[in-house]
């Protein structure tokens, strides 16, 4: 029997034979509604969605599969509890202090004493036609080598070649080379690449916001993820707001997850969280080549199932984009290319994003579709922000066997969800991001001070407060010195004129 794929998608799908469980007959009707979808619009929908909040096991942060299982609910919640509209956020003119005097290189989370709040709920306040957006265009790029050392080149670029189906995603787990930052990386690599570009052109890469793609993904998807939580640090330098992850909080969370025991209700024979995270990296190894497929020997292509798995080497793209009146420089890792990179900098780059998901049953229930379309929210947002036009999903069994591959066009995903469960809406995400960025600019107004941007799980309110006597670290000293030098050059040039 051939396992099915997501019926709302457009693309070629291949599968390998698998034995599937028979579906519950009473759940077939809801799935049939999705299967009978007609042509999908290429633009984002304007129809407001039903308020469906994602389940915590749908988290897929930093483009890796991060699935957790939970006891089945009798029925998924499909509508949010009505809430009264909160008053509009108003930033305080006297922000209270949030923590003792510390350096940003050694920050620890402090009790929240917000100076301003931004209400996410009700999400209907952000519905309607989307704010104007600017297509992401690459400004500069860089790579990390096999030792995760910064390189100003394209050595980290990979090329997509369809994987062999039936591969075991568990294979190679014991020899996996897993890189995780042990010290706070701040925005150093991103700013280093921008600085290199400015030295070449002699022009400043001006933007209202500079951050990693992962930070904007968390912000953009917050309206439809009631389990979302994040902590970030923010600072203002020369008219630009820089946003970075709260590294100490993230490190503490990782340590807690590493020591968390397996839930008693979870089958001990099922893969754990670490193994399921590895499956995403393994799928990349099965699907990518370091050279274009036509230039790669057949033996190399066929040997990918036995190739070592590592996430040390990466390639990162830094793009300029915009939400409404706000311009952004975003940096993020890209998985590979589906075709050669165009020579013209104005042409779209055929990047691809690789994801894994559990195979849908032969006759998927409404809940099966709902769970997958919730995951599509972050799939879409991550690719949308960097201008990645195609997402390739590796369908897998519960035990990690690759059963199929499916391609989704990024710009069509919101329409698919609108015609499916309506559990999120692309226009609303864009409008929320534009409104939030405008509000943040009105709050972060004091040059050089560091603020904490925080969203608690299920809170529905983003809070911002000042970190007292922080000494910086978000913007590297090297980058600040370069910007000072660049301003002096421009000043000298004007005097000569």
TrEMBL record:
Location (main, coarse): nucleus
Ranges of Polar residues composition bias in the record: 12-30
Pfam families found in the cross-reference section: RAI1
Organism of provenance: Paraphaeosphaeria sporulosa
Name listed for the protein in its UniProt record: Decapping nuclease
A biological process term (GO) from this entry: NAD-cap decapping
Superkingdom to which the source organism belongs: Eukaryota
Region span, Disordered: 1-120
């Amino acid at each position: 029997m051939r396992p099915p794929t997501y019926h709302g998608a457009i693309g070629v799908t291949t599968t390998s034979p698998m034995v599937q469980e028979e579906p519950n007959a009473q759940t077939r009707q809801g799935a049939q509604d999705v299967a009978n979808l007609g042509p999908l619009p290429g633009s984002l929908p304007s129809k407001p969605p039903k308020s469906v909040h994602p389940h915590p096991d749908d988290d897929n942060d930093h483009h890796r599969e991060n699935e957790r299982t939970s006891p089945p609910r009798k029925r998924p919640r499909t509508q949010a509890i009505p809430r009264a509209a909160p008053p509009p956020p108003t930033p305080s003119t006297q922000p209270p202090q949030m923590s003792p005097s510390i350096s940003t290189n050694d920050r620890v989370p402090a009790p929240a004493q917000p100076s301003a709040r931004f209400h996410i709920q009700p999400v209907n306040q952000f519905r309607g036609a989307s704010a104007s957006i600017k297509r992401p265009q690459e400004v500069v790029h860089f790579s990390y080598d096999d030792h995760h050392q910064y390189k100003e080149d394209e050595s980290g670029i990979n090329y997509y070649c369809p994987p062999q189906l039936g591969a075991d995603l568990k294979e190679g787990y014991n020899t996996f080379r897993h890189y995780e930052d042990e010290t706070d990386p701040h925005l150093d690599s991103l700013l280093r690449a921008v600085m290199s570009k400015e030295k070449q052109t002699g022009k400043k890469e001006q933007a209202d916001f500079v951050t990693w793609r992962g930070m904007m993904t968390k912000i953009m998807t917050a309206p439809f993820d009631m389990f979302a939580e994040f902590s970030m640090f923010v600072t203002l330098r020369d008219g630009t707001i820089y946003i970075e992850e709260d590294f100490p909080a993230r490190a503490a969370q990782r340590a807690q997850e590493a020591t968390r025991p397996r839930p008693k209700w979870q089958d001990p024979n099922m893969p754990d969280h670490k193994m399921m995270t590895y499956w995403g990296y393994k799928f990349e190894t099965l699907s990518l080549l370091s050279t274009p497929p036509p230039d790669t020997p057949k033996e190399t292509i066929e040997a990918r199932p036995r190739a070592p798995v590592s996430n040390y080497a990466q390639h990162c793209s830094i793009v300029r984009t915009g939400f409404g009146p706000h311009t952004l420089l975003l940096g993020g890792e890209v998985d590979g290319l589906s075709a050669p990179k165009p020579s013209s900098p104005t042409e779209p780059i055929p990047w691809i994003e690789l994801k894994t998901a559990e195979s849908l049953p032969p006759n998927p229930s409404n809940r099966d579709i709902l769970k997958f379309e919730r995951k599509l929210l972050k799939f879409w947002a991550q690719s949308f922000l960097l201008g990645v036009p195609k997402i390739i999903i590796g369908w897998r069994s519960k035990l990690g066997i690759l059963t199929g591959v499916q391609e989704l066009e990024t710009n069509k995903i919101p329409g698919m969800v609108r015609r499916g469960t309506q559990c999120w809406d692309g226009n609303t995400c864009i409008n929320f991001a534009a409104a939030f960025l405008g509000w943040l600019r009105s709050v972060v107004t004091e040059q050089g001070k560091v603020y904490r941007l925080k969203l608690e799980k299920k809170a529905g309110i983003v809070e911002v407060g000042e970190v007292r006597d922080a000494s910086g670290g978000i913007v590297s000293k090297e980058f600040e010195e370069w910007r000072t030098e660049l301003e002096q050059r421009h000043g000298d040039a004007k005097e000569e004129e």
